[in-house]
């Protein structure tokens, strides 16, 4: 199979009456037979509207069942189908639609006015859940047929090098760029990941991240076309924890912030357990798991007495706890898109989950390296995927070449040439180290390294992760220190972990101060945070401080909080600036 269309047709024929896509509780389901029928209807309708191979179709909607036959239907025409972040302002919508040269936009009724306000030059707006004036209802599109449309011949004419999708980068340093991914690259990705993290027909996964994010698009949509997974769509990502026991995923993935929130939820659940015996048992089991993981991380053999104690904890507490969380049948899970504190991975490993850290980027089709779920490998992102080449430049930047490398940035040949050499090497922008077995550890983004007043290079992500690992109360940290005599930090709290306390609560301040002191013990002297300030705000994806994929926007943060940053270095020290304390 050389295209995603061929993969879908083969997969859909395996068990046509099996459920392919569903919502929690099976309030809506889509069998493979219904899926295939709707794909044909969407393709036929789009053809009637004049969509042809090489055209672009945009989708702007929440995670919903309708998304799948629409996206795959467009693919069967040879069109490029891509998703727009729902939270984009009108100006952002105009940029991506114009850059993509989108002819058609599928959307929910709630987004019609914003799309029109954008002024983007699109031919049709097709609405999946209503009939706003001047739009085409999805039900009407799927009945359009001008006659003579050769569905079989059309999808078979699609070629491996055709651009299947566009992924717009999150724009931490400027205007987003549209990464072009081909059918061949997406198929290669699925098969290469499968060699490290196997996926089978009937495996279950949730779709809850935005479909404009390559992580959701790859692991939900494209894995499904190739392997035949069952997808549970969760429209509201804040409800993912509640949806997991319903879906019971066998494979799963999330960004670090979601893993951190799940950890907070588990810890809070234990803290609020009303039965003293049950609460003590939960704490004991997690402690046993943590002690076992620490020994495995050190590369030592687990003593027989601890192994026996762990077996009891597994049977009596850990197994039932995973079942309650919805992870009772989980084969593997991944964390990616941003660095995750090894302590967070260790927590879930102690719980008995097989969580691997992955590394990749949109320009590499998604996942480019993955590590087995081995406690001894926590903190690494594994080896480069089979079939790919890598080398490390003199300045530590990772360069990658192979089938996963993007075709280019849509309409941006100069920007493409900046990162993609004539002989196919992609400059990733990530500084890495590589051990003797080829395992990669990401130091930081090349452009984000802190160089202090003494010329010392440091990774802000390493500093920030040490703090986040020390306390679930800390949702975000920004390490400051470029051209400064010492490091400081802006801290943002997790609203759920506040437990109703205010920003100025003495216990909150004490907890953050202790967390930073604990982190400092894990950092070199020059990396340590000398002062910090708690910001009385919560940061949301897509706002000034975070990209839609929850990466820090360091330059805008520096500009927006310039006065707060200066206060961190002021003498005498301001009242709302604090120093870490000795950890208890």
From TrEMBL:
Domain AMP-dependent synthetase/ligase: where?
Answer: 8-409
* Segments traversing the membrane: none
Query: Which GO molecular function terms does the record list?
Result: ligase activity
Alphabetically list the UniProt keywords: ATP-binding, Ligase, Nucleotide-binding
NCBIfam families in alphabetical order: ligase_FadD11 (NF038343)
> PANTHER family from the entry?
AMP-BINDING DOMAIN-CONTAINING PROTEIN-RELATED (PTHR43272:SF33), LONG-CHAIN-FATTY-ACID--COA LIGASE (PTHR43272)
From the Swiss-Prot or TrEMBL record, give the protein name. Long-chain fatty acid--CoA ligase
Report the source organism.
Answer: Amycolatopsis acididurans
Upper classification of the source organism reads: Bacteria, Bacillati, Actinomycetota, Actinomycetes, Pseudonocardiales
